[in-house]
Amino acid sequence: MMPEIRGLGDKVALITGGSGDIGGAIAAGLADAGATVVITYVGAESLAEQVVESIAQAGGCAEKIQLDQRDPEAIDACIADVAQRHGRLDILVNNAAWNVGIPFPDLQALTPDLWDRVMETNLRGPFLLARAAAPLLKASGQGHIVNISSAGGISPGSSSIAYSSSKAGLNHLTRCLAVALAPEVAVNCIAPGLVEATRMANRLPEAVARGARRQAVLGRVGQASDIAQQVLSFVLSMSISGQTIVIDGGMPGAMR
Ligand SMILES: NC(=O)c1ccc[n+]([C@@H]2O[C@H](COP(=O)([O-])OP(=O)(O)OC[C@H]3O[C@@H](n4cnc5c(N)ncnc54)[C@H](OP(=O)(O)O)[C@@H]3O)[C@@H](O)[C@H]2O)c1
User: Fold this and answer.
1) Which residues are catalytically annotated?
2) Of the residues 22, 47, 146, which should be mutated to test ligand 1's pocket, given the most ligand atoms within 8 Å of the CB?
3) Which residue of 74, 181, 189, 243 is most buried, as measured by CB atoms within 10 A?
4) Which atom of ligand 1 is nearest to the CA of 148?
């Protein structure tokens, strides 16, 4: 018998980096399924407001909070703010990330400061968010964390060694948190390859994007809506935890 798929009507979701292309799509997808969504942004307040307004126009419920997730105290304050506003948190999507393009062989260009900025944003931030949110997610009884990683965390590639390593760390953090927060919280991860029509992807030379589409066995790479749909799929299930799923159109190099 097929399990009944319930909506997210009574759930509250926090999506970091909701002002970004993928975070905005995830927020819209969860709001569409009925969740109240809180998105974070660090500097792009007007982009965050656009996401909030477009969700409201579609009949959903959304709010924005400014958060620099390099700051541990700001993370605790953000979660406390969500708790005060809503009294609960059921879903945390660790989507925010920062990157800078440094060719892998140029080791000297990857300075300690850049390394730390990437790691603080992309790996320490998600851990501290999970740490701060854990009591609320556990209290939910059916809590979810979905981390947004990268195919670069599986096969060496993407914008820099630091970014690729931060995402590899996030993939393993997913497994560690799945053990740490069970059985009340499921923790999963999505590792996108190139995602079409995102600012991050648009910064790549067209030849790189063309190459990715050509290598993908399905002849296409991911869209932001594909990532949003997978987040929804994870948060509707309490039968999957500790998994990282790659969304890249099927790159032979990233198949494990
Ligand atoms: N786009 C792709 O092709 C692709 C491929 C693989 C993986 N991914 C992953 O997918 C996720 C979303 O990517 P995207 O393309 O949507 O990126 P994006 O449009 O550049 O959005 C990045 C988001 O992270 C936020 N952010 C950056 N630094 C932050 C900080 N210190 N504290 C808090 N928030 C911070 C940004 O806030 P502001 O808008 O306020 O600056 C923005 O909301 C990321 O984890 C990325 O690594 C993307």
Assistant:
1) 163
2) 22
3) 189
4) 45
Domain count, the chain: 1
Express each pLDDT in 159-194 by its tens digit.
899 999 999 999 999 999 999 999 999 999 999 999
Q: What is the CATH number of the domain that holds 133?
A: 3.40.50.720
What's the confidence (pLDDT) of residue 252?
84
Q: Please check whether residue 89 lies inside any domain of the structure.
A: yes
The finding on whether 65 has its CB within 6 A of some atom of ligand 1 is: no
Q: Is 253 contained in some domain?
A: no
Task: Give the whole-angstrom CA distance, residue 248 versus residue 121.
Answer: 23
Q: Which spans in 154-223 are helix H? A: 161-181, 199-202, 206-215
Reply yes or no on whether the pLDDT at 33 is more than 70: yes
4 pLDDT higher than 90: no
pLDDT tens for each residue of 39-89: 999 999 999 999 999 999 999 999 999 999 999 999 999 999 999 999 999
Assigned domain for 252 exists: no
Indicate whether 225 belongs to any domain: yes
Q: Which domain holds residue 184?
A: 12-246
CA-to-CA distance for 114 and 102, rounded, in angstroms? 10
Q: How far is the CA of 223 from the centre of ligand 1 (A)?
A: 15
